[in-house]
Amino acid sequence: MDIFTTLYGNLALGFGEALTLSNMWYCLLGVFLGCMVGVLPGLGSLIAISLLLPITFHIPTSGALMMLAGVYFGSDYGGGTSSILLGVPGHAAAAVDVLDGYPMTQQGRGGIALFMKCVASFFGATVGILLLALLAPALASVALKFGPGEYAALLLLGLIASATVGQGSPLKGIAVMLVGILIGTIGLDISSGLPRFTFGISELEDGVNLAVLALGLFAITELVKSCGQGRKKVAEQKFGLRDQLPTREDWRRSVGPMLRGSGLGATFGALPGTSGGLATFLAYSIEKRISRNPERFGKGAIEGIAAPEACNNAGIGGAFIPTLTLGIPGDPIMALLLGAMMMQGIVPGPQVVTEYPDLFWGLIASFWIGNVLLVILNIPLIGLWVRILAIPYSLLFPAIVMFTCIGAYSVHNNVFDVLVLSICGLIGYLMLQLRFEAIPLLLGFILGPSLEENFTRSMTIYRGDFTTYFERPITASILLVTLALVVWTFWMASRKPSRPQEA
Amino acid sequence: MTNRKVVTASIAAAITIAGAVQAQDYPTQSIDVIVPTSAGGLTDLLVRTAAQHMSEELGQPLVIENRPGAGTVVGITAAMKADPNGYTLVTPPASGFSINPNLRDLEYDPVADFEGICLMGGAPSILVVNPELGITNFEEFLAKATADELLFASAGPGTPSHLVQELLKIELDKGGVETDFVHVPYKGTAQAVTDAIGGHAQVLFESPGPLIGGIKAGQLVPLGVSSPKRLAALPDVPTFAELGYPGVELIGWVGMAAPKGTPKEIIDTLGAACLNATSTPEYAKMAEDNGLQVFTAGPAEFDTWIADQIQHYGALVEAAGLEKE
To answer: Which of B70, B149, B158 is facing A193, going by the closest CB pair?
Structure first.
């Protein structure tokens, strides 16, 4: 009972702060800007927040943070829209929406996919924020229990669980994933500080950027493909609002995935070491595995939108927790938010929650208000977004490529990344011609290097003794689950020997 | 023929006059400031705070352009190649101007390719331990370090956080204290701090910014500061000189520089503006709140400072076994 009175008190304080007219205005402004920027492939919250940072000098603290947070999840939301409609993810984590969202668009169901995405992300965000309000302090201490060993075990689980996330031959999928892991090794080695595969190019010392790789593999490849095909045929789209409503069947299929996705997202969101879309890909592969007819996945299954979207948004709130309660940013965007706090004279750290409760809870309340605003903004916009498809490809794709180049440039304000972008595009096109999929490569690239990094670090900490992995409760249980998953996969495969396979 | 000579001469004259006028009227347009680190970091904050004040004084905006990459090398190299006309400046931190030149072959030489404008301040490092070790002061730390293998985190090989760890080892060794630290390199500060708080690593030597929150909440125990003066934000934490190890002195810094060949009048104008900006109360407060110290120097002094720092860090890089291949 006590926990609920505190929850109520905290939320009341938060909404009291967030529902002032000026703060709602900043929140709306942030969400709107984020949405617009996020839809453009390559332009994400990083560039939007960098541009807004100097303005925050002149805005009251809570308004400034609410605006920046609004940009963050607004652009995260927008990123999925272009995945669904154009097969070009607005940012790397939205790549998972391409898998089933783009086929839905090609079947003329793009609006329905967008609608379900909107509902699923709102649902996920609500679950995530409620959990956050209930458990914020506890979440931070759970995150602290995760050291290098725990992350290594978790990443291994993620890598194995999502090995079959793609459509085609599993063998090709694994091969491509290994290539992704290899691309991930480019850059300075963490333990020795020596460069690997950089060929003396100093820009490569930081490795290939995830956003640039994803943009190259999807956006550039999509463009080259459409050039080769001449006029591209997309199924006739309907533009009325009623045509964007999911059918009863769609709803029935989506409820379970939304619930599971939210749970997964809220859990992973609190772990700062797992950013970059691990959770969303896991949510997708879980749905595919437990589905009675997994062959529908990749061909326009609405579950493939509902689960990762709910998961993604349930996790966003969690991403703020280590930033706010420990003062430690999980990614460059969170670092910008911390910078904005420091400029306002607030020293980040655990004391923020107690010293500035109105700011902290106000921000959390603004997450939810921001998500309500997202729904209000986006439902009427769905028809408009779908109309983008009516633009001739010869006009649309050059524009997309332009934005993609700007996006790649903005990562480090460096032309070199535009070059990397084109090379990734070329690789993507070759892979397409040879019927290799891009998603496993992206996954290998995201998970492989952090697995290596955390594993070597854990070996240093465990003094080279691998058995420590089985002595620690968290690592041991994660490894057990991994093992069970491997056994289960082989068992399922042996039960269905007649399943048609390529390769 | 004569006509051509006249034309050439007048063009030459025009350029010379234009150049002189340019230096006199400087600045007549906005000034690009390349910050070779990501936005939101401490270097970035110091520069942005100072740049705002400088913009007001110079009457032209200073436009901050973050160009991170290869540990500040990318941004600094870009600045070196810029026109030395006073409209492209760079704000190198210690790593870019005094560590990296010792670590690897670079396109730029901090002394030969740049003119110093001013030193803007910086931060020492704080030695912290996880509270579960049960250590409350440096003496207990020494006892523990000689008895046990301690997991000593850093933000990565060759970072200031790693080098100050090496410096501590060297100085303890000189003082006859034998230690057995296990270096645990991380990818950047954030993860190293998280794991020090979580107890996965036991010791960390890092700049105050990311540590202050944890120290004030009792999640990290501070043992010493690597500057000659105590930190205003943590007045109870002794300096290493007070602890009997004056050799453990290493300060991270950030300054402002222009590519070599920038007219002297421009350098002096900028230097004066920068010194004014860094002596405002807002600047001091921003720095103090975040565990930074304000120590400044004008153009000539900053040039000497850079040369000294290259030597100082170079010795550490060598001791850490990280020198150029």
So the answer is: B158
